[in-house]
Amino acid sequence: MKFIKLLFLSFMFLAGTVSYAQGHKKETPEERKARIEKIETAKIAFISDKVEMTGEQAQRFWPVYREHDRRRHELRQKSRPYKEQNINALTDEQIQAGLESRLNIRQRELDLEKEYMDKYLRIISPKQLALFYRAEREFTKLLLERLQTARK
After folding, report:
1. What confidence tens digit (pLDDT) does each residue in 102-117 have?
2. Distance in angstroms (rounded) separating the CA atoms of residues 98 and 91
């Protein structure tokens, strides 16, 4: 039953991804939100299946994960301006300050990962957490592969 559910969700996710990549270059905010929600639903199904969480674990885990993901996204947004600057137009002092700021943000990301690892381990076992990290990477890889295939 889990396999059928996962297969169905994957199909729905891929159908949305393919249709987006084949011509919906300009999408409305509502369409973008719906596409992101489909991806998130497929991600949760994929990871839950790989990690084999109990219902109680999943109920406690996913809200913590969403909070972690939101905070991680906020940190990454803070580093974005430094990636987009024209380095040739900056002084050495500005570049040095940008490099130090980048390291500071990366340290904050690492601190955040440590904080949430502790939170996750209060909900799931160390083995499940290791499987979670692996499944999260697998899903991202699968998503990127599907997007590349859909664009070709």
Report:
1. 899 999 999 999 999 9
2. 11
